[in-house]
Design a protein that fits this description.
The complex is a heterodimer. Chain A is of the alpha+beta class. Chain A contains 10 helices and 10 strands. Chain A is 27% helix and 16% strand. In chain A, strand 4 and strand 5 form a beta hairpin. Chain A is globular, with a radius of gyration of 22 Å. By secondary structure, chain B is mostly helical. Helices cover 72% and strands 0% of the residues of chain B. In chain B, helix 1 packs antiparallel against helix 2. The longest helix of chain B has 31 residues. Classes of the chains: A alpha+beta, B mainly alpha. At the A-B interface, strand 2, helix 5, helix 6, strand 6 and helix 10 of A face helix 1, helix 3, helix 4, helix 6 and helix 7 of B.
Chain lengths: 303, 308
Amino acid sequence: MTTPLDSSLWGRLDDPAADAGHTEHPKRKGFFTDTSVCIGCKACEVACKEWNQVPDDGFLLTGMSYDNSQELGASTWRHVAFVEKPIDVAPPVDLGMPSLGAPPGDDQGAASGDSGIRWLMSSDVCKHCTHAACLDVCPTGALFRTEFGTVVVQPDVCNGCGYCVPACPYGVIDVRPDDGRAFKCTLCYDRLKDDQTPACAQACPTESIQFGDLDELRERADQRLAELHEKGVDVARLYGRDPDDGVGGDGAFFLLLDEPEVYGLPPDPVVTTRDIGSVWRHVGAAAGALVALGVASFVGRRR
Amino acid sequence: MRERSMVPEPEFESYYGRPILKQPTWKTPDVPLYLFLGGLAGGSALLAEGAALTGRPELERVARLAAAGGAAAGTVALVHDLGRPERFLNMLRVFKPTSPLSVGSFILAPFSGLATAAAASHLTGRLPRLGRLAGLGAAAFGPPLATYTAALIANTAVPAWHEAHRELPFVFAGSGAQAAGGLAMMLVSTSEAGPARRMALAGAAIEILAAERVLGKGLVAEPYHVGRPGRMMKLARRATTVAAALTVVGGRSRVASALAGATYLSASLATRFGIFGAGLASAKDPKYVVIPQKERLARRAAAASATH
């Protein structure tokens, strides 16, 4: 049974695994996805599918740039977004990409002949929120907080009620139609238990996806952000890194080069359960009003 | 990419116009029907106990059957909606106050049992004392059953539902009273239907007032005004007004009472389908997520810079 303590529902919470009852546990694990070095190779998508034996969910050609997997879902646990954004000037900035003798001062746009278009690529994943709405609303206990501070669905318990689906402020988890149950990224729970790196991070050739202890990843991200700002990349910002944000910070957070909504991410997500106290108070008042109404209906003259 | 050039109002960016939130996978008509049946059953349990206490056997019979029948049909709808119906009992594995569906399962299960026992005892005349006790229990669980479903949809990231979390419980309480009173008005002779009339009328008033506040919430409430859900909501409001007028003007006419009752029922049903549909529409369009969240961020930034 969950204790509805305020810090368990919302706000800063430094140790979600302990809050969930893991007395002795490893450090909180997570992803730092640095989209400034993502090359859109989709190795993460493939590695995830292969390792986790995630079934296909259709082979559509969408016309949305190079993105045919479209969005995270029950059978897409890593999703690489491709944004082709028209810009006025392409500032030649060395993003620190691993290079093999590319001409100095090269910038992606001008060299490939499509200047005026800025490419944004980003590998999205379940955020493994500190305050996870999917977990909070799951009525069966199928969703749980692991000892690594991650959020995982137990397929043998899930009864496919679908409550987690509209609860997630990021639109990550979904029900697999032919199966009936909900699925999402497990942050490779099985590999973690074996001291291994999650498949997507292992497969990433540019270290855009970095896996590790969350506190260390946050430090590394802060350094990277400072480095980019120093180089004049003012648009760089961290997303989901702040432990005081609406979900208590994400276990999987990002460095973005544009507004979050450009990548299909909510600008200011809040865990719905923040308001659960208010919700129940109003339900209680309304139920009370209904009782009063029922009693009043029988009072008065008999007719 | 800039998307939705067909929508001229507030500029916002999105990823190819795709939704940010997932569409609820809850099925139509299962879930809106369940919202309606929960209200009908919960309100009817109250009516049944009142009728028993004040000696109105005809009203008691109809209300007891409505409470039991509504709960049974609602349970069927709810189980049918599951992706793995055979695992329905997993709902009772844990009790989580953060999950209205968990809390609701612990309301629905006892309510169904108690309402069924009360109805069975009333119909067969067996174990009358236990039957009454069961009826009292059902009456206690009835109002929570009619209102918790508002928490169910409000405790999501869906803007049209979540931002209405203070008002929806009252909309549902009023709508449930309206449905329970309406059904009894249809089926009970006017000499005993007085409480049902009063319950429906008061429920209609609460429902209209609370819904009015939901509809006035600006951009997040837009899905309640447009498209099919918008038409449903409008239909519901008109039907409620007509039913209320019929109740007042029709007096003790049996025909007017039955007509008003049927109209109350359809209004309650339309309200549930309208609210449910508006939530689906709200999750589908990224503007309902992006624009209010950007405004919130801007307000916070302005407040922060004001203090420095």
